[in-house]
Automatic annotation (TrEMBL), chain A:
Name assigned to this protein: Carbohydrate ABC transporter permease
UniProtKB/TrEMBL annotation, chain B:
Keywords: Cell membrane, Membrane, Sugar transport, Transmembrane, Transmembrane helix, Transport
Family assignment from sequence similarity: Belongs to the binding-protein-dependent transport system permease family.
Ranges of residues in domain ABC transmembrane type-1: 90-299
Listed InterPro entries: MetI-like, MetI-like_sf
Species of the source: Streptomyces coelicolor (strain ATCC BAA-471 / A3(2) / M145)
Main subcellular location: membrane
Protein name: Integral membrane sugar transport protein
PROSITE patterns: ABC_TM1
Length: 292, 314
C-alpha cells in the first residue's frame, strides 16, 4: 500500500444521481463524528495536561479552566519527584540502538531473500515470521535467569538485544518486500557492466529501497519505544525505560491527573509524530508487507 | 538464478548441498552467507529461551527454594489446568482476544467503508482515527484508567452528569469490559487501516460494470466487496490475535490483573515475578505458545494465500 493507494483512483466512480451525493455527504458527516469520538480521549488528555490539578479533577469536567504548564513542570521533576530524563534517555538508546542493529542484520538477509534469492527462500521467511508468533512470555523466565546469572539485569544493552530480536523478523519481511521491487534486470545489467557488489548496493539498490528502509526503521523504533513487559521484568533503577517510568503512575489513583496526562503525552509524542508522518508505511509494515 | 545449487534439503537454515564441484558449493554459500547472521541471532535469542522454558516447565522449581528443585513431569501442566485461578486466566485470555478482535474488526470495517468515500476533510478524519493506535500502550491504559473511567472525575461520568445519567464505577463493575473497551479503541484504527487498503485495491471497473447492470450498493457490498476483503479481514484478525493474546500492558495498568481480568501473559508474569514459581510459570508460558500455534497454523495458511502470487520469483 503506497500513498497513491490511499488517495485512490475513484475518478470513474462518480455518483450519478443527486440522492446518492446527498447520502454521501451525510455519511461524510458520520465519519467526522466517529473520528472526533475516537480522538476525544486524546484531546481531553491534552487539555487536562494543561490544567491545574484542582481543575483537572472535577465533575462535571471543566472545559474553560485556565491553562498552566504545572503538569509538565511536575512531570519533569520540579515538585521533587523523580526526573523522567534518565528513563527517556534509556528509551531513546534502546530504541535507536536496536533499530540500527536490526538494519545491520536485516539488510543482508533481505538481500539474500529477494535480489539473489537463495533456494527455499519462502521457508526462511516463514521461519522469521514464526518467531514472531512465539509469545514473549514463553522465553521471559530463561532470559531473566540468564541475565541474573551474568549480571546483565538492569542493563540497557540487554533490552537492546531483545528488542533487536523482537523487530528483526518484521524488518526482514518488510525489507524483503521493498527489495523485491528492485528490478533484477537492472542489478544484472550493472553486474555485466563490471560493477562490484558494493557499488551495486550503493548505486543501484539503495536509492530504490531507501524509503522502505526508512519506514522499517520507524516501525522498529515505535515497537521498541512502546515495549513494557521485557523492560518491566529486566530493568530496575538504572535501565528503566519510559513505559516503565509511566507504570509508576498506575497506583497514584489519578491524584495528579494533570501530571499523568502530561507524562502520557510527552512519552507518546515521538511515536505520535513518527506515526502521523508515515501513516501508509505503518500499515504495510504492521501487516508484514503483505498488504500493498 | 543459482538453479544448480542444491538438492532439496531438510531445513533452509541447515542446507546440506549434495557433493558438487567446490566452486558451485562456494557460490551457494556466498548466496546464503548474508542470511546467516540474522538467522543465527534469531535462533539464539528466541528459540533457545523457549527450549529452556519447555525444560523448566517439567520441574517443580520455586526460586525461593532452589535446592528443592525436582523433575515432576506434567504436574505443572496439571496444576495450571486444574487451578481455578489459572484456568480462569486461560478463559480470560480467550474472551479478551475474541471480543477485542471481533469488535474492532467490525468497527474497523464500518470505518473503512466510511473513509473509502470521498468527503471533505477525509485526510483529517483518517489522522484523527489513527491517533489511538499511536499512543504508547501504557499511556493509553493510564488514560482510560484515570482520565476516562475514574468514577469521580473521569470524563465518562463527567459527560453522563450532563444527561443526568448514573455514575458507575466502570472498572469495579465491569472490569473485563473496561479493559476490552480500551483495547478496542486502540485496535479499531489498525483494522481500519488494513481494510481501507483492501477497499482501495478493488477493481473499480468491475464495480462500475455491476452498477450498470443494476446492482445496488448492498448487492455490490455482499457479492464483490466482501469476497475481495476476505484476505484483509483474515489478516487483520490474525495480526490482532497475535498481539492481543499477548497483551500485558492494558491488563497490568488498568486492573493489575485483579477482578478476574488476569490473562495468561499477566499470570505468567505474576507467577514467576511475584510468586517465584518458575516451573508453574513456564508451564503457563508453554500453554500460551500452544494457543498461539493454533492461531499460527491458521495464520500461515492465510499468509500463504497472500503470498502465492509472489512465490514464482525464486
Amino acid at each position: 500500500m503506497s500513498a497513491t493507494a490511499v488517495r485512490p483512483v475513484v475518478t470513474d466512480a462518480k455518483p450519478p444521481v443527486r440522492t446518492r451525493r446527498r447520502a454521501g455527504a451525510g455519511l461524510g458527516l458520520v465519519a467526522w463524528l466517529v473520528g472526533i469520538v475516537f480522538f476525544l480521549p486524546i484531546a481531553w488528555m491534552a487539555l487536562t495536561s494543561f490544567h491545574s490539578e484542582s481543575d483537572a479533577a472535577t465533575n462535571p469536567p471543566s472545559f474553560a479552566a485556565s491553562l498552566t504548564l504545572d503538569g509538565y513542570r511536575e512531570f519533569f521533576g520540579a515538585g521533587g519527584g523523580a526526573s523522567p530524563w534518565p528513563a527517556l534517555v534509556n528509551s531513546a538508546v534502546a530504541s535507536i540502538a536496536s533499530t540500527l542493529f536490526v538494519l545491520v542484520l536485516a539488510l543482508p538477509a533481505a538481500y539474500a531473500l529477494s535480489i539473489r534469492p537463495v533456494k527455499k527462500w519462502t521457508d526462511v521467511l516463514f521461519f522469521f515470521l514464526s518467531t514472531k508468533m512465539l509469545p514473549v512470555v514463553a522465553g521471559l523466565l530463561p532470559i531473566y535467569l540468564f541475565a541474573k546469572n551474568t549480571d546483565m539485569l538492569d542493563n540497557i544493552w540487554l533490552l537492546v538485544i531483545l528488542y533487536t530480536s523482537m523487530n528483526l523478523p518484521i524488518a526482514v519481511w518488510m525489507m524483503q518486500s521493498f527489495l523485491a521491487e528492485v528490478p533484477v534486470a537492472i542489478v544484472e545489467a550493472a553486474r555485466v557492466d563490471g560493477a562490484k557488489l558494493p557499488t551495486i548496493l550503493v548505486r543501484v539498490v539503495a536509492p530504490i529501497a531507501l524509503p522502505g528502509i526508512a519506514a522499517t526503521s520507524l516501525i522498529c523504533f515505535i515497537f521498541s519505544w512502546n515495549e513494557l513487559l521485557f523492560a518491566r521484568v529486566l530493568t530496575g533503577v538504572v535501565a528503566e525505560t519510559a513505559p516503565v517510568f509511566l507504570t509508576g503512575f498506575i497506583t497514584s489513583q489519578g491524584l495528579f491527573l494533570a501530571k499523568v496526562c502530561a507524562a502520557s503525552l510527552v512519552i507518546s509524542l515521538p511515536v505520535l509524530a513518527a506515526g502521523f508522518a508515515a501513516q501508509d508505511k505503518l500499515v504495510q509494515g504492521l501487516s508484514l508487507g503483505a498488504v500493498k | 538464478m543459482t538453479a544448480t545449487t542444491t538438492a532439496p534439503s531438510a531445513a533452509p537454515e541447515h542446507p546440506r548441498p549434495a557433493v558438487r564441484p567446490p566452486s558451485n558449493r562456494l557460490r551457494a554459500w556466498a548466496t546464503r552467507a548474508p542470511l546467516l547472521p540474522a538467522l543465527i541471532f534469531m535462533i539464539v535469542v528466541t528459540q533457545l529461551p523457549f527450549v529452556a522454558t519447555l525444560v523448566i516447565s517439567f520441574f517443580d522449581w520455586n526460586a525461593l527454594y532452589p535446592d528443592a528443585r525436582s523433575f515432576t513431569g506434567f504436574a505443572n501442566y496439571g496444576d495450571v489446568l486444574s487451578d481455578p485461578a489459572l484456568r480462569k486466566s486461560v478463559w480470560t485470555t480467550i474472551l479478551l482476544t475474541v471480543a477485542v478482535v471481533l469488535v474492532s474488526l467490525v468497527l474497523g470495517l464500518a470505518l473503512a467503508l466510511l473513509l473509502d468515500r470521498r468527503f471533505k476533510g477525509r485526510g483529517v478524519v483518517r489522522t484523527l482515527l489513527i491517533a489511538p493506535f499511536l499512543v504508547v500502550p501504557v499511556a493509553a491504559a493510564l488514560l482510560w484508567k484515570h482520565v476516562l473511567y475514574n468514577p469521580e472525575y473521569g470524563l465518562l461520568n463527567g459527560l453522563l452528569h450532563y444527561v443526568g445519567g448514573p455514575q458507575p464505577d466502570w472498572i469495579s463493575n465491569t472490569p473485563l469490559l473496561a479493559v476490552e473497551a480500551s483495547l478496542v479503541w486502540q485496535w479499531t484504527p489498525f483494522m481500519m487501516l488494513i481494510l481501507l487498503a483492501g477497499l482501495q485495491s478493488r477493481d473499480q471497473q468491475q464495480i462500475e460494470a455491476a452498477r450498470v447492470d443494476g446492482a445496488g450498493d448492498w448487492q455490490i457490498f455482499v457479492h464483490l466487496t466482501l469476497p475481495h476483503l476476505r484476505r484483509y479481514l483474515e489478516l487483520g484478525a490474525l495480526l490482532g490475535s497475535i498481539y492481543i493474546v499477548q497483551n500485558f500492558d492494558a491488563v497490568f495498568t488498568i486492573t493489575s490483573g485483579g477482578l478476574g481480568t488476569a490473562n495468561l501473559p499477566y499470570t505468567v508474569y505474576q507467577s514467576f515475578y511475584q510468586a517465584h514459581e518458575n516451573g508453574l510459570a513456564s508451564a503457563a508460558g508453554v500453554l500460551v505458545v500452544i494457543g498461539s500455534i493454533i492461531i499460527a497454523t491458521f495464520a500461515l495458511r492465510v499468509v500463504s494465500s497472500l503470498f502465492r502470487e509472489e512465490v514464482g520469483r525464486a
